[in-house]
Fold each of these.
Amino acid sequence: MGTLHDTLFQAASVALDEQDSATGAMPAGHNGPWGDPETPVRNTGHWAITFLECYERTGEDRFREAAEDAVSYLLRPEARPGGATFHHRQSTDKDRCNGLIGQAWTIEALVVAADGFDRPDLIELAEEVFLTHPFEEDLAAWHPVELDGTVQPIDMTFNHQLWFAAAGGLLADHPKSGDAVDRQVRRYLDELEANLNVMDNGLVYHPFKPDFDVWKYGRIFYEGVKAGIAYTMVLGVLSGMFGNDDGAESSEGGWTEKSIGYHSFNLYAFALLREVYPNHPVWRTNAIQRTLAYATSPEYVEDLEGNPYGYPYNVSGIEMAYVLETFDLGDESDRHRWLERQFSRTYDAESNRMTRNNPDPTTLTARLYEATRVSDVEISTDFETGDEI
């Protein structure tokens, strides 16, 4: 029996040997169940946060040096080859920036490192990249931007928009950040209730689908036409309106399966935003309260079983522990149960890596960084191969 932070320390100690001594890069994964080959940028940013947390807790220089080397990699030309956005995805048929979500992860890492190392230059870079993305005031939504600065149609995945806002909130909260990022994030929060499609049971719907508005829906269709994916975008909107949520993307599973697997990931971003903007009225809305009620229900625990986007990818147990703590739900025993649900399924105590029951151990282990925001709690990681809680 150990603690959550002990586990982070052990995993980070192993990861030190995996860091490229020449560049500071960490091993790349393939985006979990999506199977998209990635560059080292994503996981290097994640590990920078974990290494820095371990340094602050232990004072061991090896972790500080690893965090500094990881940040140095993010500043190398190969991490941002076109001078606009960070290179996340190695793909011939998808964008290389990985929509808004890839940039959100790197901005998050830069902000945490800027605070830990007192480096305002990292805030300047994060702000530059964030503001490179055009923001539609009426829709309260951002456009992704490719590596060379090419503006893409609005990102129609809800969690991408949400996490970009959350990264912006972290950036806006830094004393060296200007007002422009903060204004956009506040505008996003003002429209969040209208843009948040909550299903009957409180589940957040995966595609971006605002409340019905002629102008907004016309704009969504226009964006789809520009991208050559009008049918897919409109189908996502109609599925949310009429409940036919399993009809889309049948080759990769329906919207309901994705929505369940990403529910904790969405709530984690809500929690990040709530910590920066605790008094915004959106947190008191019925929509947000319903998403939290579903997340704390036995139904959600059952729905997560066997979901490829939950414990095997979005570290739902870690995310829920942070959500409970931030929104003051339950107690330490509830956080403990969620953490053990995660670790019993995916953590291997012998290798100190998340190698069990998931398609991408490299990325899942890097995602341990999400636990850096969770208060320490006693957990067990000594599980037999078949054990689950």
Note: The longest strand covers residues 2-3.
Amino acid sequence: MNALPTLAFFVVHGFVILVIAGVWYYATPKFWEVGYMPEQPSTGFNHQIHAGKLGLDCRYCHTHVEESWHANVPAVSTCMGCHAENKLNVELASATDEKVQFIRDAYATDTPIEWRNVHVVPDYANFPHNAHVNAGVSCFSCHGQIQAMPVVVQEESLSMGWCLDCHRNPEDNLVPKDKVTDLFWVQNEWFNKVGDNGALEPRPTADRVHEGQTPQELTATLKRNPPQHCAACHF
């Protein structure tokens, strides 16, 4: 009986530690939100074909990312700019005809396509796309290898800690401004593949050169002083 209080002490405190550890690990955006992939209308929009195989610039569809706080979803008329009759070669048109019929139906009935948002920032936080894009933050840094995704998946947690990590050390995510939407260039020139699974990690700053600038000059040109206070995102 004398040992019971000691045993109870370790059992209770061990349980409390396990609960805290479980919440610390599982109750986070990194665990619950990374990998989020909502079901899109019809077969959705295949980025692997459009941004990857065809090499479309992100700004063809997301036309206002350089001037707006929000990355707009394209109107049906934008889709029809390519998918209207005779705009595609016969072989490609016949291969994709059924998959894009929902676009033609929406255009014919003047009905917007209800795309589901993948990257959702809480209402109490603000993320201005234009400020980040114009500062040299590549689409690749937040959205990952979007050109290889048949269906878009949330690649990063979008948590406050993730944002602050970038604001404290922005160099790894800053690229030349003319390359912000060039996903292949960023992937091949700004990152190294490591490990057996081909994971990407930023190249050392000293290895980065663009248009004749030394790495030091380039970094000094790109780097700003990203705010780290609360009012930067919450106002």
Note: The longest strand covers residues 191-194.
Amino acid sequence: MGTTAVVALQQENTFWVANLGDSRAYLIRGSGVQLLTIDHSVADALVRSGALSAEQARNSPWKHHLYKFLGCVEMTEGADIHPFAPRAGDRLLLATDGMTNHVSEEDLTQAIVRHRDPQDAADYLVNLSLERGSKDNVSCILVSFDPE
């Protein structure tokens, strides 16, 4: 058995995001969305190596084959760790692939614009994923970095 994970840790003014598998972290700043993690799927690795295009990877039979995840006995390296310094108004989304496979980056920014409350935006994204047919675990945490 194995699972994917994405976590965030705050140390003073820096946040550290780590992931294993294809659960993701996004930084939403203004109208921009930045993926802070990489998917540990075979298809995504093939995109990074240049063997597949991003479009080919979306339809690849290797999209859900993970080479790195919690519980992987063959894993020789740990999680990928990515630091970032949040600004007032930023949002940090931690989400499972059950969500991110069914919502676009545009959907993420629209959720923030339509729903200023982080819980309302998270609920909207979960419901949108389910409406679009997700059969996988759909969960997320949305952190809001509001001005003091």
Note: The longest strand covers residues 5-11.
Amino acid sequence: MQLNQLKAILEALFSASDQPLSVNQLFDLFNGDLEQPGKDEIRKAILELTESYQDRGMQLQQVASGFRLQVKPEYQQWVARLWDQRPPRYSRAMLETLALIAYRQPITRGEIEDIRGVSVSSNIIKTLQEREWVKTLGHKDVPGKPALFGTTKAFLDYFNLKSLNDLPTLAEIRDLDQYHPELALSDIKESSLPT
């Protein structure tokens, strides 16, 4: 299969898909074709497609589960006007809980409560699990066997991350406090934050 034809097919697949596609998934879609491209050919086509979107309003973004075609962040304010709905607002408690799970995983609900100094609503954990951002990784080997929570690939995909290593460091978060005082971490105990 010629590279230009492969790029056109991949572009159509990325445009039609409602979820990221991995190289393995793309390879499987060509299964049985007379001119089945190899995984290296698919990677090369993806690289060239990524470069071809440099000066356009879209980008081919790699996230934890694969690649997806998406609007560049600098154009989102105009695209958002297509929908009457406002993006969901998340409470500070939910965001703090999600941040603690992301940075300290695996972590129990009790550990989250100790760090935050307040109880964690069952609705927060339930909402995070319904969004498929958080899952139960197992149970801690202590009395009561509390659930250990961790993030999912859906969490990484939603926040445009390839891995947890792409999360901002604590130093970067503290720098945000200078520019956005309303985001200051003063409510959370200093000793409980990841380093």
Note: The first strand starts at residue 58 and ends at 63.
